[in-house]
Amino acid sequence: MRRVASVSLVILCVLVSAAPALAQARDWPTERPPQPLAARDIKFPPYEIQTLSNGLQVVVVLHHEQPAVTMRLLIRAGTSSDPKDKLGLAHLSASLLDQGVKSMSAQEMNDAVDFIGGAMGAGAGTDLTFCNMVVMKDSFDAGLRMLSDMARYPAFAPAEIERQRQQMLSGLQVSAEDPGYIANAVFDRLVYGFHPYGMPENGTPQTIASITRDDVVAFHLRHFAPNNAILAIVGDVTAEESFAAARKIFGDWQKRDLPTQTFIDPPDPTRRVIVVNKPDAVQTEVRVGHLGISRTHPDYMAVNLAIRILGGEGSNRLHQVLRTERGLTYGAQANMDTLKQTGDFQAETNTRSEATGEVLRLIVDEFWRLQRERVSDRELDGAKAYLSGSFPLTIETPEAIAMQVVNALFYGLPLEQLQNFRERVNAVTVDDIQRVAKALLRPDRLSVVLVGNAKAFAGQLGGVGFGSFETVELAELDLTAANFKRGIRADADGAGRADLAGGAGVAQRSQRVAGPARLRYSVQTQQAPLASRPSQDARPDDAAKATALLDRAIAAKGGLEKLRSIKTIVATQTLSNSGAQTETVNYIEYPDHFRIEAAGTVQGFDGAQAWARDQNGMVHELPTSREALASLRRDVIALLVAAKDRKLTTRLLPDVRDAAGRTTHTLEVSARDLNPIVLYIDPQTSLITKQAFGADGPAFTLVTEEFSDYRPVDGVQIAFKATRQVGDRAVQRTVSDVKINTPLEPALFKRPAS
Description:
alpha+beta; Cytochrome Bc1 Complex, Chain A, domain 1; outer membrane lipoprotein receptor (LolB), chain A; 3 domains; disordered N terminus
């Protein structure tokens, strides 16, 4: 049945009062700062590109201001290519490239580079590994040959492997106590899920300890090939001598078949709050954001400027609000990571513990404001001025030019974009900013990470719209676990279970209870979190299990054919709230019309606009049309049919147990334009006993509905009793009559005249 009570509309009015600011009278003259100087003309140096017969892509950039040459070799494989049980392999392998080759030890290699006055280095990023060599012009051939040896013939000496391993382990030990590092790592896992971008790039103590020399050699053999590489030569050389040297030194590098890499998709943005408890912390690290765009997105420049207005150089609303106006932090910023496959948007700051809730609310408000309000010309001009004005600094030296060139080639971008950078920046308009903000920002689905003393700020979160959150003790933090806690294993049925470390999906909510002292206390409930992620230990047949559970729920409700046949529902019911009772008659016409009649008032939705008629006959449009349509889609019958038709994504979640030890199956359904809904399914009857979801709006609200007293009506199981919980408010519904497929007049749902 369509439970029409669940479609009732609530208009939330947020009243914001600003404290008056006291300002000293100023009797001295003031004036605006001087206008910036006109940007000086810049030209990207001339360049040429060739691809050798073995597939090596070579780009030469002519830069004759200094008698030096920078060579940068990039391999299209980085930490995202690490096997899940060998996290840290790419970083360990890259750290060894400049620590000895087959013809020279690490010490001999360093001495050789020092002798020619050069410098070398190597490292790994998310999608790539690189080797660098910088030499004077007269040592060009020698430097290029050493670069070739680094990439093609690394020694991977056992002693060097152990030395680098110990350095990585020591680094992890230090990072484990750094709140900023922890916040960033948890944020990545929260946003990217178990996609490789979300896994710890530097590995874990367990995975690093497990890496052998054979693993390092295999990684090198698998990914280091000329047809998987880009070579940039930048400096005081000619194109002819550069290409000739590249062919001579790299020409015998054998082309190989490359491995096919397939990654799971990162999860859609989902509202989830992780609190990492560090009791000795006196301030809170705050990270807020969600999945973003890849580097090749057609709106990259407009999005870049939008995020800079939110929290970057040249504008920075976050810093203005949090630092300048409120004095809540020393600084705040927003960043945009754009990687090969996707990216993320992230706002970050830190603040004293007692201000955590206020800071979080203000950050979320700024996400909403950027999406809902047009930015000013002055803000956009400031962001443009910084971006175009700082660009010359990125191509001042051969090293910087090499970086720009190989990045462009790596992402498949035309090098012409480096020449017309300023033109592309200045072409972005205020309309472009508003368009991309509306299309790509999801302030209703922000992932939030808070690292600090949870006891000092957890009680604030409910008051700013984040009453549902998960708490993880720092000592128990595990970035490879579905619920971020150590001690989760997979049972025979593939569902995650908790060891003694804690329950899977335990959420802590701070609630107010009635009483003389208005005491605040913490309640722990064992439930599947709204934004739970699949465990990396989940078996491949989880999708089949989810489908089977969905099919059982459909059969218990009345069967797919019967559910599809339902066109209208008319229900008479009584709503009870704090002792008051209201009789309502509810009409639904699938898929997008409803009408609620109660105590002389009427609310309706015509598929596009929500409206209401009060007791005086006045008719008003309601600003809740999006939530009205979402409410219709959240109806159990609509959910089951849409999930079966694959219009919604279905995902199996771990079973949950109540205090009495009773087990309930859980299933999540979601879509890009619908917040995830968790369905709780009785193992014996396969009927849905509860659903939980986050309502849309600037402040996240957890809504739960519990169903009971199922009775058959025309072959469909209808819950004649239900309780809807929104925050601290509960409404009970008792159905007295239900009619299915009663013909309804179209005018019933249209907005009436006043």
